[in-house]
C-alpha cells in the first residue's frame, strides 16, 4: 500500500469515527430531550392534580375530626348510661327496701288486729284476702 492509500484510509476511518460520534451524540440529545419533556409533563400533571389531592386530604381530616367528635360523644353517652344505670339500681334498692318496710308494717298490723280489712300494695282490697261477699277472711 502506498502512502496516499494510507492517508486516505486514515481519513476515511477518522470520518467514520466522527460520524459515529455525531450519531451517538444526536441519539443521546434526542433521548435527553425526550426525558426532559416527559419530566415536564409529569410536573404539570402533579401541579394540576395537587388541588384535588389537597382537597381529599382536607376531607379526610374533616372526617377524622368528626369521628373523634362522635367517639367523644359516644364515651359521654356511655358514661351517662352508666350513671343512669347506677341511679336506677340505687332507686330499685330503695324501692325494694321501702316495700319490705311496708310489708313488715302490714304483717305487724295483721298481728295486732287480724280482723282488720287487708289492702293490697295499691291500697285496694285484695280478692285473695276477702271473700266474694266482701267479708273478711276470718269472718266466714
Please outline the helices and strands:
Elements: H1 3-112
How would you portray this structure in words?
This protein has 140 residues and is mostly helical. It has one domain. 79% of the residues lie in helices and 0% in strands. The chain contains 1 helix and no strands. The radius of gyration is 52 Å and the shape is rod-shaped. The C terminus is likely disordered.
Largest sheet: none
Number of domains: 1
Structural class by sheet pairing and helices: mainly alpha
Number of DSSP helical runs? 1
Rg, Å, rounded: 52 Å
Order of helices and strands: H
- Strand residue content: under 5%
Shape: rod-shaped
* DSSP helix fraction: over 70%
Number of strands: 0
- Low-confidence spans: 127-140
Mean pLDDT reading: 87
The multimeric state of the shown protein is single chain
Distance between the termini: 159 Å
Gist?
Helices cover 79% and strands 0% of the residues. The protein has 140 residues and is mostly helical. The chain has one domain (9-110).
Amino acid at each position: 500500500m502506498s502512502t496516499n492509500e494510507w492517508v486516505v484510509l486514515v481519513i476515511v476511518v477518522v470520518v467514520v469515527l466522527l460520524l459515529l460520534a455525531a450519531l451517538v451524540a444526536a441519539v443521546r440529545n434526542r433521548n435527553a430531550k425526550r426525558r426532559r419533556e416527559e419530566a415536564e409533563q409529569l410536573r404539570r400533571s402533579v401541579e394540576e392534580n395537587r388541588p384535588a389531592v389537597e382537597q381529599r386530604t382536607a376531607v379526610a381530616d374533616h372526617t377524622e375530626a368528626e369521628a373523634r367528635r362522635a367517639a367523644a360523644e359516644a364515651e359521654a353517652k356511655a358514661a351517662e348510661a352508666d350513671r343512669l344505670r347506677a341511679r336506677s339500681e340505687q332507686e330499685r334498692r330503695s324501692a325494694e327496701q321501702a316495700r319490705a318496710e311496708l310489708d313488715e308494717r302490714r304483717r305487724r298490723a295483721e298481728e295486732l288486729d287480724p280482723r282488720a280489712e287487708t289492702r293490697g300494695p295499691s291500697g285496694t282490697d285484695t280478692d285473695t284476702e276477702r271473700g266474694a261477699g266482701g267479708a273478711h277472711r276470718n269472718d266466714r
